[in-house]
Amino acid sequence: MSEGRERSGEVKALPLVMEAPRGRAKPPRHLADLDEVGRKDLLTEMGLPGFRAKQLSTHYFGRLVHDPAEMTDLPASQREELVTALLPDLMTPIKQQSADAGTTVKTLWKLFDGSLVESVLMRYSDRATICISSQAGCGMACPFCATGQGGLQRNMSTAEIVHQVVVGARAMANGDVAGGEGRLSNVVFMGMGEPLANYKAVVGAVRRLTDPAPAGLGLSARHVTVSTVGLVPRIKQLADEGVPVTLALSLHAPDDELRNELVPINTRFSVAETVAAAYEYFEKTGRRVSIEYAMMRGINDQAHRADLLADVLGVYGMHWVHVNLIPLNEVRGSKYTRSFDEVMDEFVRTLERRGLSTTIRDTRGSDIDAACGQLAAEER
């Protein structure tokens, strides 16, 4: 929003945890919802050999196999029952789009209840990253975001979150992404939803992703990034979980007046409170925080806001953050548009002069409804 423009009335405070409507059926229970002990106990309760849980986990997390026909170490007489118990179908791909010569692949998934979510697999020269969803829709109501415009349908289960990553890892291992066989190395919780509003399932997913195989996928916690618009109590809770993931704070504005409009949760937790919580995360984990800042033409890209951003972050020094400027993925029909390149370049120069490490994100898939929520909205 430009300076001096009138703002609409008060924004209602949003709840800290977004609950799905009561009465909804729950997603099928899956081994990724459970730890090793829980998987074994479940099979034992069903009258099945508990040790089979480790074999199933090895197939799913270690070999990246989901087809029962390939699980030849399981007895044929029990195979179907074992797979039904711990490896039920969770989601169905209903549309895929590719870009960047096939190195970017976006998938639209239909969950068991018809909810739609998206994930994006991106292959670079030195890594492969998957951007995953944690909720069907989002309740944070950020007006420039396609997902936020659709509201929240429901939270995703731990297994639904994890499965996006396992499928991406399988695609890389099988050479289904341009560039041949490879390894998935990075996961970013930057798809649909506010991860920390689905806290329990997201932390469970982080543990499954970072637990050594066959308990989990065996990724490095340092290669997992959890994004948030700034749920302060949950940021503090995450700092004490013992999993040193990278925290990405979607700030988007350095002043409360503008951020109240762009990120409505700011009416509950101010810029100062949110940045303080992010710094506390850095202090406890030693992990440098990424400040996400979507560049919007004439809204938040003015020179004085670059200086104000440096002031806000510099309260704790410049060593603890990296600023990641994001050229806005425009949503059709939205008043929010992408900043001009020269404006973004000057924004970077200002921050760097102030001592802040700053980059402009390498955007991918601009020709395939790249902003999360666009493909789902189009399908709906």
Automatic annotation (TrEMBL):
<keyword id="KW-0819">tRNA processing</keyword>
<keyword id="KW-0949">S-adenosyl-L-methionine</keyword>
<feature type="binding site">
    <location>
        <begin position="250"/>
        <end position="252"/>
    </location>
    <ligand>
        <name>S-adenosyl-L-methionine</name>
    </ligand>
</feature>
<feature type="binding site">
    <location>
        <position position="227"/>
    </location>
    <ligand>
        <name>S-adenosyl-L-methionine</name>
    </ligand>
</feature>
<keyword id="KW-1015">Disulfide bond</keyword>
<keyword id="KW-0004">4Fe-4S</keyword>
<dbReference type="InterPro" id="IPR007197">
    <property type="entry name" value="rSAM"/>
</dbReference>
<dbReference type="InterPro" id="IPR027492">
    <property type="entry name" value="RNA_MTrfase_RlmN"/>
</dbReference>
<protein>
    <recommendedName>
        <fullName>Probable dual-specificity RNA methyltransferase RlmN</fullName>
        <ecNumber>2.1.1.192</ecNumber>
    </recommendedName>
</protein>
<dbReference type="GO" id="GO:0005737">
    <property type="term" value="C:cytoplasm"/>
</dbReference>
<dbReference type="InterPro" id="IPR040072">
    <property type="entry name" value="Methyltransferase_A"/>
</dbReference>
<dbReference type="InterPro" id="IPR004383">
    <property type="entry name" value="rRNA_lsu_MTrfase_RlmN/Cfr"/>
</dbReference>
<dbReference type="GO" id="GO:0046872">
    <property type="term" value="F:metal ion binding"/>
</dbReference>
<keyword id="KW-0489">Methyltransferase</keyword>
<dbReference type="Pfam" id="PF04055">
    <property type="entry name" value="Radical_SAM"/>
</dbReference>
<feature type="active site" description="Proton acceptor">
    <location>
        <position position="118"/>
    </location>
</feature>
<feature type="binding site">
    <location>
        <begin position="193"/>
        <end position="194"/>
    </location>
    <ligand>
        <name>S-adenosyl-L-methionine</name>
    </ligand>
</feature>
<comment type="function">
    <text>Specifically methylates position 2 of adenine 2503 in 23S rRNA and position 2 of adenine 37 in tRNAs.</text>
</comment>
<dbReference type="GO" id="GO:0070475">
    <property type="term" value="P:rRNA base methylation"/>
</dbReference>
<keyword id="KW-0698">rRNA processing</keyword>
<comment type="similarity">
    <text>Belongs to the radical SAM superfamily. RlmN family.</text>
</comment>
<dbReference type="GO" id="GO:0019843">
    <property type="term" value="F:rRNA binding"/>
</dbReference>
<keyword id="KW-0963">Cytoplasm</keyword>
<keyword id="KW-0479">Metal-binding</keyword>
<feature type="binding site">
    <location>
        <position position="329"/>
    </location>
    <ligand>
        <name>S-adenosyl-L-methionine</name>
    </ligand>
</feature>
<keyword id="KW-0808">Transferase</keyword>
<keyword id="KW-0408">Iron</keyword>
<dbReference type="InterPro" id="IPR013785">
    <property type="entry name" value="Aldolase_TIM"/>
</dbReference>
<feature type="domain" description="Radical SAM core">
    <location>
        <begin position="124"/>
        <end position="367"/>
    </location>
</feature>
<feature type="active site" description="S-methylcysteine intermediate">
    <location>
        <position position="372"/>
    </location>
</feature>
<feature type="binding site">
    <location>
        <position position="138"/>
    </location>
    <ligand>
        <name>[4Fe-4S] cluster</name>
    </ligand>
</feature>
<dbReference type="GO" id="GO:0070040">
    <property type="term" value="F:rRNA (adenine(2503)-C2-)-methyltransferase activity"/>
</dbReference>
<feature type="binding site">
    <location>
        <position position="142"/>
    </location>
    <ligand>
        <name>[4Fe-4S] cluster</name>
    </ligand>
</feature>
<keyword id="KW-0411">Iron-sulfur</keyword>
<dbReference type="GO" id="GO:0000049">
    <property type="term" value="F:tRNA binding"/>
</dbReference>
<dbReference type="InterPro" id="IPR058240">
    <property type="entry name" value="rSAM_sf"/>
</dbReference>
<dbReference type="GO" id="GO:0051539">
    <property type="term" value="F:4 iron, 4 sulfur cluster binding"/>
</dbReference>
<dbReference type="GO" id="GO:0002935">
    <property type="term" value="F:tRNA (adenine(37)-C2)-methyltransferase activity"/>
</dbReference>
<dbReference type="GO" id="GO:0030488">
    <property type="term" value="P:tRNA methylation"/>
</dbReference>
<feature type="binding site">
    <location>
        <position position="145"/>
    </location>
    <ligand>
        <name>[4Fe-4S] cluster</name>
    </ligand>
</feature>
